[in-house]
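Q: I have 137 residues here and want to know how they pack in 3D. Can you give me a structure?
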Amino acid sequence: MTVTRTVAVLLEIMADRRLPIVRRIQAAESLITFETSEDIAERTKAFLVAVAESKHVAFNLRLDAGRLVRKVESRRVVTPGTRAIEPREWHETFRRIAIARRRMRLIKQDLWPCPKDWCADLYRRGGLKCPDNQNCS
């Protein structure tokens, strides 16, 4: 990932020991709030951990730094991964949609309660039994 000029400036502010610590923490927060490279995220997290653990920093600033570290850590834990959907699941979903569409079409045509075998082909394909009180066979 290419470091933009804005990110470079924020990194410079965060690393400058001559600046007030509150401003350095704000720069770190700006870096971790938005998507960034793993390297920059780790450098920012290391800075915030150092501030949170330092006994020479005011308590409220240590608390802010600790809160930001937790935000970074919990984001990594909470972010759900993706999973591949099995083709069988898609077939079942599309089959159920087809049954619902057919049912709606019959209702609109005033053919409800359903005629005999109205969904037998769709139920047989999925291996499901017809719901009770419906003529599918």
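Q: Anything worth noting?
A: The CA atoms of residues 96 and 125 lie 11 Å apart. Residues 5-78 form one domain.
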